[in-house]
Amino acid sequence: MTSSELFRQECAVTVLGGPTAVIDMGGLRFVSDPTFDEPGPSGYLTKTAGPAAEEGALGTVDVVLVSHDQHPDNLDVRGRAFAEAAPLVLTTPVSAARLGERAVGLSPWSSHLVPRPDGAGDLTVLAVPAVHGPEDGERDADGYVNCQVTGFVLSGQGLPTVYISGDNASIRTVAEVSRRAPDISAAVLHAGAARVPAKFDGRPLSMDGRRTAAAAAVLGADVVVPAHYDGWTHFSEGLDDIRTAFREAGLSSLLHTPPHGSWVAL
């Protein structure tokens, strides 16, 4: 783990480990699914590695994006404190009720405008669906598999359109996002094929490498950055599996996998 400062970029993304990504665009800094706890047990899950940068290295953060707050591998103790201290949190309606007065709950296909300090109007954050488990998995009373989860699409004048999948295992959902939010040029895709034996007969709760490659093909994105494939024992696939899947699909040129804490231009 390092505490070196992450200097602002014009338009770039870096993954810090687990699901946590920093996205700089439009003069704004976004942090998705912040997780900063030290390795160790966390309920029924076990964390094996900390982030590439701690909270203090991130400087001023404008928006925190939380796909869901129910699972510690997406929002841990320090990540929750980080989110609650942020000027704006965008998340699901269920999670917003637990994340303080600056949290805004977005239903699928609703959006929130964030003023850009670069003077080019607003950056639009669109909430998009995510299915946190098999398509045929048992759904709760509100119709969700596992729990309510959201993805996000960031866009604005003169900026790339960036999709952040959140914990999603459904290619059908990716196809719907591609249809309703076209021209996605970059994607941060949660991979790792997370599995918990007690849930859905151990079937994946997030995309495996092949589905991540398929999602990239469906989206037509020029830049794909995988996240959420390491740092926890419940991931059944790692970076080598993702790279192999993209190579076999003929999509290696799209995949960007620098060391955690290194920037990828968008």
What does this structure look like?
Strand 6, helix 1 (77-85) and strand 7 (89-91) form a beta-alpha-beta unit. Strands 8-7-6-3-2-1-15 form a 7-stranded mixed β-sheet. A 6-stranded mixed β-sheet has the order 9-10-11-12-13-14, covered by helices on one side. It has a two-stranded antiparallel ribbon with strand order 4-5. It contains 5 helices and 15 strands. The mean pLDDT is 94. The longest helix is centred in the last third of the chain and has 11 residues, at 209-219. The radius of gyration is 17 Å and the shape is globular. Helix 4 crosses helix 5. The protein is of the alpha/beta class.
What are the SSEs and their pairings?
Layout: E1 12-17, E2 20-25, E3 28-32, E4 40-42, E5 45-47, E6 63-65, H1 77-85, E7 89-91, H2 93-96, E8 103-105, E9 111-115, E10 122-129, E11 150-155, E12 162-164, H3 171-180, E13 186-190, H4 209-219, E14 223-227, H5 239-248, E15 264-265
Parallel strand pairs: 3-6, 6-7, 7-8, 12-13, 13-14
Antiparallel strand pairs: 1-2, 1-15, 2-3, 4-5, 9-10, 10-11, 11-12
Helix pairs in contact: 3-4, 4-5
Keywords:
266 residues; 7-stranded mixed sheet; 6-stranded mixed sheet; 5 helices
Helix content: 10-25%
Q: Which spans of ≥5 residues are poorly predicted at pLDDT below 50? A: none
Largest sheet: 7 strands, mixed
Q: Compute the CA-based radius of gyration.
A: 17 Å
Q: How much β-strand is present in the residues?
A: 15-25%
